[in-house]
Amino acid sequence: MRAAPASIAVLTIALLAASPCRAEAPAAAPLPALAANISETSVSGISSGAYMAGQFQIAHSKIVAGAAIIAGGPYGCAESAFADVMTGPGLAFLNLSKAINGCMLNALAVWGIPDTQLLAERTRKLAAAGRIDPLDSLVTDRVYLFSGTNDRTVVPSIVAAAYDYYERLGLPESNLTYVSGLPAGHAFVTGDEGLACEDTGKPYVVDCDYDQAGEVLKRIYGELAPRVSAPAGVFQEFDQQAFFKDIPNHGMEERGVVYIPPTCAKDATCRVHIAYHGCTQNRATAGEAFIRESGYANWADGNAFIILFPEAEASPVNPQGCWDWWGYTSENYLTRDAPQIEVVYRMLEQLQKPRP
Predict the structure, then answer these.
(1) In what order do the strands lie in the sheet with 234-239?
(2) Which domain holds residue 293?
(3) Is 80 labeled as catalytic in the residue annotation?
(4) 133 assigned to active site
(5) Looking at 151, 207, 211, 301, which residue is catalytic?
(6) In this predicted structure, what is the pLDDT of residue 84?
(7) Residue 285 domain flag
């Protein structure tokens, strides 16, 4: 998920141009109505997905019980100091430079970036303005943070800054878990799937003899029923386009995937976990390893979890298929009005609807 220099150049230039039209593929099946309990939703993500998980959590903290930030940094880290006086592609360009140098490589530390106190103050201002949910609904969340010692893409000090950010917002130490001792590369970690633990490369799933999906869900929800060795439910591809109405610049793929355990398809009231992939980790680029090998589905069956895997798209403006954590879709990318946050929230609303 490290951006190669050529990729960065393409991305930087493309931010100044309009994204071309894309031919629509035939629609997939609709996301089903499953009478889900979305008031106890949780989120996780790796890399750009980690930043998006934090953005969704803070924008909609009233319904989010907890979040996992895997190889990601603090909310709003990439936002330029000119955010309140500048709009358009130029702002996204400034944010992108800060994102790469200050919020991945920690190359701006000498200038005090990331400044977690400033980021916490910015978050409070957004809450006071009603652009994100009130922070009193955030401080009870449980947050899991992870950095591998061999991660050279988002270095450990950036993840440590995310921990400090949550503390500054008032989350108690007992609600925060920071795992940093495993020799993982820049990847999602599993007990027995993927590349060698220290590797960084597609599909960004590595075997470190550590069940990260289980640890994430247990840290957020407490004790769970044991995982199953083979999920008995359905990985269902669904039409994401149904949620794009009135959101022209969403940056998302036409299709996503949802894992539905047998009980959730029938009569159980299930909670939802949203799992955000990283850059170059969507299905078009890396196949379904993140969806099928992360282990989330193995924990879903016995614990009544629906696992939602939304998908960002690769495009000239975003060639690596990253989630928007620097403003390429909108200057409102950190708030409830962010295109990608709104699209995924609409998915939750659909899952909440009564079964037919």
Answers:
(1) 176-179, 142-146, 64-70, 37-46, 271-276, 305-309, 255-260, 234-239
(2) 5-14+30-352
(3) no
(4) no
(5) 151
(6) 52
(7) yes
Per-residue pLDDT, 87: 60
Average pLDDT by consecutive 10-residue portion of the chain (356 residues)? 40 37 66 98 98 98 98 96 57 89 97 97 98 98 98 98 98 98 98 98 98 98 98 98 96 98 97 98 97 98 98 95 97 97 98 97
Q: Look up tokens 């977690």; give the residue.
A: 116
Residue 275 sits at φ, ψ, to 5 deg, of -115, 115
First to last CA, the chain: 41
For the chain, the domain total comes to 1
* Separation of CA 269 from chain center: 24
Q: Which of 186, 250, 273, 277 is catalytic?
A: 186
Known catalytic membership, residue 273:
no
Residue 21 domain-assigned (yes or no): no
What the block records as the tokens of 286 is 């890396």
22, part of any domain: no
Residue tagged active-site, from 42, 44, 47, 48? 47
* pTM over 0.90, yes/no: yes
SS3 31: coil
Distance of alpha carbon 50 from alpha carbon 234, whole angstroms:
25
